[in-house]
């Protein structure tokens, strides 16, 4: 079973979005950060998606408190 999509407490650089995505998809945070930076070279809403994930993904602290 895959890990839940949350922003972790550790391994954060800015908001933890890349670290959370890396944990979810089974790769390293550094690899996910490189993929994100390379994707920013292409036209599209990558930065807006990052900001949206920052806002809407729960922090690991909040997710563990809300889990029963």
Describe the structure.
With 68 residues, the chain is mainly alpha-helical. The chain is 56% helix and 0% strand. It has four helices and no strands. It has helices at 17-25, 29-39, 46-56, 60-66. Helix 1 crosses helix 2. The longest helix has 11 residues, at 29-39. The chain starts with 16 loop residues before the first helix and ends with a helix.
Task: Detail the topology: elements first, then pairings.
Blueprint: H1 17-25, H2 29-39, H3 46-56, H4 60-66
List keywords for this structure.
mainly alpha, 4 helices, 68 residues
Radius of gyration: 12 Å
N-end to C-end Cα span:
18 Å
- Quickly count the helices: 4
Q: What is the global morphology?
A: globular
What is the tally of beta strands? Answer: 0
What's the SSE pattern?
HHHH
Structural class: mainly alpha
Largest sheet: none
Mean pLDDT over all positions:
86
What is the helix content?
A: 55-70%
Question: Strand percentage, roughly?
Answer: under 5%
Entry summary:
With 68 residues, the protein is mainly alpha-helical. The protein has 4 helices and no strands.
């Amino acid at each position: 079973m895959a890990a839940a999509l949350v922003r972790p407490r550790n391994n954060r650089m800015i908001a933890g979005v890349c670290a959370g995505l890396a944990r979810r998809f089974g790769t390293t945070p550094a690899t996910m950060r490189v993929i994100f930076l390379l994707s920013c070279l292409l036209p599209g809403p990558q930065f807006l998606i990052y900001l949206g994930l920052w806002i809407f993904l729960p922090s690991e602290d909040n997710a563990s408190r809300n889990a029963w």
